[in-house]
Structure formats: structure tokens, C-alpha cells
Amino acid sequence: MSKQFDVIVIGAGPGGYIAAIRAAQLGFNVACIDEWKNDKGGPAPGGTCTNVGCIPSKALLQSSENYEEAALHFADHGIGIKGLSIDVAKMIGRKDAVVKQNNDGILYLFKKNKIAFFHGRGSFVKAAEGGYEVAVTGTQNETLVGKQVVIATGSSARALPGVPFDEEVVLSNDGALRVGAVPKKLGLIGSGVIGLEMGSVWRRLGAEVTVLEALPTFLGAVDEQIAKEAKKAFDKQGLKIELGVKVGDIKATKKGVSVAYTNAKGEAQTLDVDKLIVSIGRVPNTTGLNAEAVGLKMGERGDIVVDDECRTNLPGVWAIGDVVRGPMLAHKAEEEGVAVAERIAGQHGHVDFNLVPWVIYTSPEIAWVGKTEQQLKADGVKYKAGTFPFLANGRARALGDTTGMVKFLADAATDEILGVHMVGPMASELIAEACVAMAFRASSEDIARICHAHPSLSEATKEAALAVDKRTLNF
Is there a binding annotation on residue 213? Predict the structure, then answer.
């Protein structure tokens, strides 16, 4: 006999588990299905973000940053170290422990909120009386019926045509997080977030890293001035970035990978590396969902078609996160998960895509929210800009990290903040102030008039706001 639920959530990534929790908070009887397994075959909820994405990459970034600080910068503080070494196996073990803490935390939250968790793959069977029949296959084989179904199945790494991931020498984000020793030479195809973060990890630990990017510009989605500042920093660190390349044949053996490509000048080149990370985007993960069984409408790229409120073409079926339109970001999926649960309850859930922050956790960190300068120019919007360098910030000097700047873009007539862009220390944390300000439609003058603690990195945000009116105090 099938088990009955008010809401069934397929997928326990950031969007799915948050949707399940919010629905339970609102009084619904909720089930959540997820098939991710840990190395012992047990449940590992959290999706790509927790298992092979955001969380483990930040753990490795922190470890590698600590190593580089000790190797290159501790001496500036009068700290001497002899015999510095890196134990990669221990570093990977720490990363795995951090992942498990997050997996266990989600399972605890399910129990706390009385959510029924099913470990296996969820797929549609048919429309049923009062909702939809969903099969669970895997560790548990069950048949569930839900009045409402939320699809949160996430995304998978996109492979190069004819070059499958073996996760030994040709790596996706998954394999890049499990490299057992520092490669002598590491290649990356694509200069996206994952590529730059993983490239940074292994470069800090001693790998010679080369990034091949097809686009002629670096970080095309980032504000151009900020992207140029970031590239200067990466060049100085020794991260080799080649733009405007056309990748040709790729030959992989157990010993390494050979990449034939044409550079921006049209010259034939070959890159021989020990490992190759392919970071050319992600594709919606709908394999095995059995969408055709219920007539669920799919898009050309394998995504699920939804309206502005995440409704699919089927009554009572919703989709959120990487599997639908919009940025493939964990926090975007979380916001959609909350909004959908509230809409199911008859409330008015809301997500403003213009207020979704973006972060690249390299060193320096890159973060932004709202419009870039090139977008405002293309849209014909008249604006004012203000920038402030971390070089002139007292806390940044004390930290020993003065790379980068904060940049404000404000409406020329109303002074409303249209975008804030940062490259520099702790940009991932500093961007939150900009999100709050823009949510309340603040002006740059509002930020300029707010007292910020001294000395703090946040003073660079205040000074950049002052710079919109050309009245910085410390530069």
C-alpha cells in the first residue's frame, strides 16, 4: 500500500531539503527522497553543494590557503616555520569530515521537523487520485502518493563531447575534490567558478596550473573592471590563463592528458598535463525522473519548464534550483524552495533574481549583486560609479591582504544602488550589506551615511559609496 503525503520533495540538495523543512514548518506531512550515497552506502543528503561542490571546495580552499599563508606570508609576521609540508590525504580526510557533518546535520533537521526521508531515486509513476504516485528505488523501494510534488533534482557537470569523465585523469568537480596527491601539471578547460576555485587549491599546493578559456574575455559575467583586477591578481600568483582558445583533440591515458588547442593568435598548441579538470558548465539532472509518465513539460536543454513562481505545466507539481531557469546557485535554490512551500500553503513566496549574490571563493574573493557596468551601458541606463581600493583600508593592511576594491553603481538621477561589485579579502561576507541595501532600495548616500566599525574591511564599502559622490575620506 502506498504511503500518503501532502508534499513530496524529490532531491535533498539545498533547494530540496529547505523546501521540505519549510513545508513541514507550515504544517504539511512531508516526504523527501534522495539517492546520494556516502562511501559506506549510507544516505548523504545535501546534493552536489554539500557532497561535491560548495562545502568540500571551501574546505580545500581553506586548507590550501592556510598552507600558502604559512609558506609565503607567516615570515612577515615574525613567524618562522621549518620543514613545512602538506599531507594531502589528511587534507582530503578533513574535507570528507566536513561533508559528513553537513550530511548528518540535514538528517537531524529531517528528524527534528518530522520529515519522512527515503533513500533512493524518486521517479514519477502516474497521476493518482488527489495527486501523483512516485516510486522510490534504491536502498528503499517504496511507492508514495503526494498531493503536491516539488522537483529539486539539481544538475550534473557537463562533459566535453567525446571526452567522458573518468575521475582519474579527466575530472569533473567530483574528481577534482578527490585528487590524492598534488599534480605536477594541472589543466583546466573553462574559467568558471569551479575551475578557478579548484585551480587555486592545487596551485597553492605547488601544481603548475593552466586554464584554457574559449571566451575572449575573462569572467564575462563579472563587472569588467573587477574582472581585470582579479586577473591581475591571478597572473601575479602564477595561474596561467589563456583566453580565446579553441580546444581540439584531447587524448587521455592513465598517465595523463594531452590537449591540442588553437590559441587566440590562431597558433596550434599542445598542453600536456597530469590531470585535466573540465569546468564548462552544468546540465539539469532529470535522468530517471520519468517525466513522460505524467506529461511533465521539458525544455530544450533538459530543464523543467516553469513559470515565474516555479509552477510546471502540471497542477500541484513544482520545480526549483538547478533543474529550472535562472542561475545555478545553492542559495537561489534555497530561496525558491522556501517560496514554493509558502505558495503551496497559500502564501505569497517571493524571490528577486536581481538580489541573488554571486561569489567566487578564490583569493582574492570575487562577489557581486545587481547590474554590472557593461549591463547598464547596454541597457542605456545613466549611472554614477564609485570605487575604493583595499590598499587604502587599515584592516586590509593589518591582515596583509590589500588586493582589490569595492565598486558601487548608482542611478544617476535617484542615486538608488543598481549594483555592487567586489574583489578582495572576505568579499563573500561583505556583499551581504549590499544585498540588504538593495532589498530596501537604498541609495549610495544611505550607505555613505551609515557608521561602519573602524578598523574593518566594511569601511571599504562605505568609502566606495562615498566615492559615488566623489568624496572618499581615506583615498
Answer: yes
